[in-house]
Amino acid sequence: MRLLLLPPIVVLLLVGSMFLLDAEVPVLLLLPQPVNWGGILLVIFGLGVANWHARLFRRIGTNINTFGEPGTLTTEGLFRRTRNPMYLGMVFVLIGAACVLGSLSAFAGPLGFFILAERFYIPIEERAMTLKFGNEYAEYCRDVPRWW
Question: Average pLDDT of 19-39?
């Protein structure tokens, strides 16, 4: 069951749902063609950010699984500016996909994922990080914002 809840899988399911929702209930066209195709740049940017930091985790040998025990406190790359660059990248992917679709209904996907990350994924990770790294993680949280 946890496999289905992993953030990248949720993002894929949301993108599919966004396309279905947009096809069935296209509420208020916000971005007409060709303006909406600019969303592809956001998708590429988001994939780049998420992939860069996933590769960073692999390189330093730390756990990338949301539900696993953290390996190290990572402060390289965009982790210097945001505590959650991979989630931020995923949000950009979803915003980009919503822009490509162009309708208001498509923006339910990025909003839903942001709320899910903010209320479910991030608190799980923050509790695990606090237990493992204590004051070091508390200082990091004081210095680096959760999102931006």
Answer: 86
